[in-house]
Design a protein that fits this description.
The protein is an alpha/beta fold and 352 residues long. It is 45% helix and 16% strand.
Length: 352
């Protein structure tokens, strides 16, 4: 039995779906179902008794104690987080509450549970904390990519809150001996991603005839990781990672944002030959403190755990676009009034 937190979100739901393709081991999925949590992502598991969904907060200690006592998981994978930089700029307190205080309360409850385990399950137990490359800050164009020993220099409320959670996880290993693992991933993309992030936002807006908003000059560089590759890396770290270690997970796909958007336009035009989606590209005012470049050096996980991504950006982006073309009802269902209000709040004042 695994306990997965944040399992109705983008990466968490992809992990659970992928897990059940590889394993019969059951999962307890704890998710608060905030705006980005969506049980529709897991509709195919509605009648599967191995998927046990519980709506709740990782900061709810009484609930955590109950779940740990009832299900006795052998491992916990913590996806639960507020994860959007723009939202953290507009409202940082939610990020402090979930990413710092929530992680702290989860760690405290898990530590008490772990201390009471018998010798064999105690030795086998793992707490895997899923984090981001944004904790490392920004790189110049020619700087070496982030390694696991790179100094933390977060530059947004989001990345600062995730950096804090990483430090807490490591502290619980060094101080209390809790057997932890940390992964820091690059930008994920793929099915079920909420359309506030770059790739799904561009796909959805292009098909709707809406502007494709590009921050600043669009030359910000990111390393792009297809979500199922990320899921396979997490499985590998859980199985073979050395406790107390951090593993960077990247896609070996550094690309500027404007290139990503133009690629999406070109691929969409294959199925919409009468359209010229690049005409919808609109440059808007950059967000405050926008990091120039992220790049992951993923050689450690390849060297020590024999993991490397299977998808290139070219194969992954085609799969992603096709998924959104095939699942437009999913997009329609999540575009509620609150989502539209958020888009207007974030982009209206940026228009040039």
């Amino acid at each position: 039995m695994l306990l997965v937190t944040g399992g109705a979100g983008f990466i968490g739901s992809n992990f659970i779906l992928d897990w059940f393709k590889q394993s019969d081991e059951a999962i307890v999925n704890l998710d608060l179902l905030t705006y980005a949590g969506n049980l529709q992502n897991l509709a195919s598991l509605a009648d599967d008794s191995k998927h046990i969904f519980v709506q709740g907060d990782i900061g709810n200690i009484a609930l955590l104690e109950k779940l740990l006592a009832q299900y006795k998981p052998r491992a916990i994978i913590n996806f639960a987080a507020e994860s959007h930089v723009d939202r953290s700029i507009h409202g940082p307190e939610d990020f402090i509450q979930t990413n710092i205080l929530g992680t702290f309360r989860l760690l405290e409850t898990v530590r008490a549970y772990w201390n009471e385990l018998n010798e064999q399950p105690k030795a086998a137990f793992r707490f895997l904390h899923v984090s981001t490359d944004e904790v490392y800050g920004s790189l110049s164009a020619n700087a070496p990519a982030f390694t696991e020993t790179h100094r933390y220099e977060p530059s947004s409320p989001y990345s600062a809150s995730k950096a804090s959670s990483d430090h807490l996880v490591q502290a619980y290993h060094h101080t209390y001996g809790l057997p932890v693992l940390i992964t820091n991933c690059s930008n994920n993309y793929g099915p079920y991603q909420f359309p506030e992030k770059l790739i799904p936002l561009m796909i959805v807006n292009a098909l709707a005839g809406e502007p494709l908003p590009i921050y600043g000059d669009g030359l910000q560089i990111r390393d792009w990781l297809y979500v199922t590759d990320h899921c396979s890396a997490i499985r590998r770290v859980l199985k073979a990672g050395k406790q107390g270690e951090t593993y960077n997970i990247g896609g070996w796909n550094e690309k500027p944002n404007i290139e990503i958007v133009k690629t999406i336009c070109t691929l969409l035009e294959e199925s919409h030959p009468q359209s010229n989606f690049q005409n919808q590209i609109t440059y808007v005012k950059d967000r405050p403190g926008h990091d120039v470049r992220y790049a992951i050096d993923a050689r450690k996980i390849e060297r020590e755990l024999n993991w490397r991504p299977l998808e290139t950006f070219e194969t992954g982006i085609r799969k992603t676009i096709q998924w959104y073309l095939d699942n437009q009802s999913w997009v329609t269902d999540i575009q509620t009034g609150s989502y539209r209000e958020w888009v207007e709040k974030n982009y209206a004042h940026r228009r040039k």
